[in-house]
């Protein structure tokens, strides 16, 4: 009896202390969506051919967005890490990334990815720090206009707005009661900096320019925030605007409580999913319209784009193999396969694919947006704080606590201290 | 007088009902939502209830890592509970029976360490755990959870052992029992309720713990709370029905354990209360 107990205890401890790692494999730290689009059923597994060729497996370790960044950077700070590829957001392309991740230019020079020029230039440059490339773009999300055509039709509109001025008029008109439930014309989540800037791009407004100048109090941004203030005062935006998060925005569209939103164009799929939405098939996605004041400069609003890239930690033990896998995952074929799995493709040529265009009714619209859109704010160490400041001041303006110009003047002054 | 008693009883019933509703209401909402399609869960215009098991089916097909997480959680929780209970019992016995000045200082130090926020200790441990090749193993979580709860468990066990007369130990020694036999055969059975109480604390903590699991695991030892957190952070829209199904399944084991263990706790407390 005692011998059996001791044996079992020893076996249990041995089992508990041993991580299962039967074959040699590369480890990728990513968000679950990256794994889903890389290994989905529709397009296929984009790592399968590479695994077969090299004899190496791929282990995906997935986290939510913020935990992914925290965990990845913590692993990358070790002298040696088991992480071989990490997915990073464009907002993380700062000096900190440069310290912890491999510059990829030497890899590109020796063994480049397929047709780098096919990747949208803005995305490639967004992954550079000090002129050096640190991540290869893999996935993007560009903001467009989602509208419920059934709700718009009930209010007499048969087409989406052609200008942002028309959008504001429609938002007010689409604020009404429907079967006893209130509907608002425009839903935005909490006035977060990314969505505010995406909306403000209808006037080609900026908060912080690419050369790190704070221009929040210039006429285009003042016009944008004034429009938000106007719509909120007219009841065309939710009363509890500051408490709404991104997931709430999805629910409002799916349940018909909101007529229009600005958001990632890929959300078209979940808004039209019959399992999730009362208006499956009725939510359309188009580029966000521009203001008539800049109609000659842009056909569609240069709304914000956010994107993920694949980076190699300096502490990785398998850098050559990691680069080989990155090359495979960023090829034209892999990009197409991932797009069929639901990914936002980073290559222009992918949008010419007939099957993709059949699957995504907004494919051409998304390409038009990608050609002109830019990041919400440049990546720098205090970018998160800068985003919080914008949210704070814009909320004060929209809720009527401060005049719009004063709020944006205050924002400019406070943010200028962050950019240095 | 009778009216006062009736009023008092009614008031207590209402208060208890309100507390029960406050505590159980969200749980009942989660469980019922797990059996509804996604489009009905948050739809304010939806008043009917369409029963479906599709969320559980999707959980099985789309989130197999959740079930791996559940088994990891079970392994880690069981290991931590056993280790913490065993260590706390021995330490509690020592503190109860050995009256030395340095023991009092040691007890105070143990309590003081317990007051330190876990994050302060956890991050410096990360490189050490990696150097020892213990990262992403069940053992590291078992050790951390047990260590975290030994201080509280020791205080609880000491209180139970203090209630057992020393004369029983002495009588057993006179009869020829060794120290280990005294603990195993005499005092431990009498302090079983204390061990059950410690086990309940550790099980509830370890089953729901997130911070240590997040910092020290990746794939192999990933526990269920990490997978649940990942479900709430979906970029392409949260699948609420699937999340609620996972939450419901996650709730069941610890609820069952607490109900069963609590019964043992009460049975032990009331055993011998009446003359047999």
Strand and helix layout:
The complex is a heterodimer of chains A (420) and B (276).
Chain A: H1 2-17, E1 25-31, H2 32-39, H3 48-54, E2 57-63, H4 65-76, E3 85-89, H5 95-100, H6 105-110, H7 121-126, E4 128-129, E5 132-133, E6 136-148, H8 149-154, H9 164-173, E7 176-178, E8 181-187, H10 193-200, H11 219-233, H12 246-254, E9 258-264, H13 268-271, E10 283-286, E11 305-311, H14 319-329, H15 332-340, H16 354-359, H17 363-372, H18 383-398, H19 404-419
Parallel strand pairs in A: 1-2, 1-3, 8-9
Antiparallel strand pairs in A: 3-11, 4-5, 6-9, 6-10, 6-11, 7-8
Helix pairs in contact in A: 10-11, 18-19
Chain B: H1 2-33, H2 38-41, H3 54-62, H4 64-97, H5 101-115, H6 118-131, H7 138-162, H8 166-174, H9 179-190, H10 192-208, H11 211-216, H12 224-232, H13 240-270
Helix pairs in contact in B: 1-13, 3-13, 4-7, 4-10, 4-12, 5-7, 7-10, 8-9, 10-13, 12-13
